[in-house]
Amino acid sequence: MASATPPPTTGPTATSGSQPATASPVPEAPKDDIPSSIEADDSADFSDYNDSHRSVASSTQSLSSSIRDHVYANGRQYHRKSADEDNQYLLPSDETELDRLDMVHHLYLTTLDGELYKAPIVGDPPNVLDCGTGTGIWALDFGSLHPGSHVIGVDLAPNQPTWTYPNVEFQTDDLEKEWTFKKNHFNYIHSRGLGTSIRDWERYTKQMFEHAAPGALVELSEYSLESSCDDDSMPEDSMSVQWSDAMADALEKIGVYVRRFSPLFFREHLEAAGFVDIKVFIYKIPRGSWPKQRKFKYLGAVCAEASRSGFEAHAMLPMTRLLGMSEEDARQLCIGAFENLMLGKEHCYQYHWQIVGRKPESQGA
Ligand SMILES: C[S@@+](CC[C@H](N)C(=O)[O-])C[C@H]1O[C@@H](n2cnc3c(N)ncnc32)[C@H](O)[C@@H]1O
């Protein structure tokens, strides 16, 4: 259930006094810290992003040349392997979605003050794995920054560019199946935004551990689907709450429990897999340009722009296919949530977590 208070963490939900622009690195298990409240502005306008069209996403998508690999629903294109075979991944796989993923990459880069990761990487780790690489934008950025690394980006769908750097390659595979990579091999494993698709986090993190080299770093980068709010501006029946409740209900039907997501959830899975020195970095990303402080206002504006197609991208297939909602009702819920966000009256935000761990030097898989 979405709430007006932060979701549970490993420690008290105390807020710190001053407003950190970035995350709070937290080395100890019980001490995960949460950034303090974001101050609201009188106006939710942001100069570069102040229009609010009624249409949330274009329903006319260009046809792909690999038409047989795709299925079409709700005016969107989905990859057959991910959306049709066993509900493995229910977001679209069309140009609108790939643009949104690249915009979200920018959102996360800004959130992390320009950094691609929080892991204490020194030099170029020789073998790097990017799980669920999407458009491959993170893998390419990493490969460019670390020319001495060999980066493999893996995804269910081949949505990556055919052009790539010599040290970056893309593979198509299902990471919920038995990994075919070498064991004890990768020096850094990165996984961003797989929360709504991974069913078995225990197995997923265990495979990460088995295929990580001794001393390797691992990093999960995840976000909360539900909205949080630090003041009383978000009512219990907010459209944001209705949207995220319906999403959580739908995903539970395929064994994805987004209501459980918290720093503790991800920390415990990494620990159970065998990783040590876990650090959690917690961020708040405003949904909309309601904050006063420039950085948060900008972040909120980018988040809002990504949400223009994001609510529908996340929800249309789960809500129609798994909850049995009509396409019209599901779309209305998404449009309502987006319009509500653009109004800027509810000071809501999503959590973003970076969870970093290390495989002990002495332990093989
Ligand atoms: C929300 S996108 C994130 C993309 C990328 N990591 C980023 O942050 O830009 C999730 C990606 O994970 C991929 N994915 C989901 N489940 C997967 C699985 N079981 N195996 C491989 N890729 C998967 C999807 O196809 C999609 O491209």
TrEMBL record:
Biological processes per GO annotation: methylation
Compositionally biased spans, kind Pro residues: 1-10
Claim: Transmembrane helix is one of the keywords in the record: no
Stretch list, region Disordered: 1-67
InterPro entries documented for this protein: SAM-dependent_MTases_sf
Keywords on record: Methyltransferase, Transferase
Low complexity compositional bias, start-end: 55-66
GO molecular function (one): methyltransferase activity
Record's protein name: Methyltransferase domain-containing protein
Source organism per UniProt: Ascodesmis nigricans
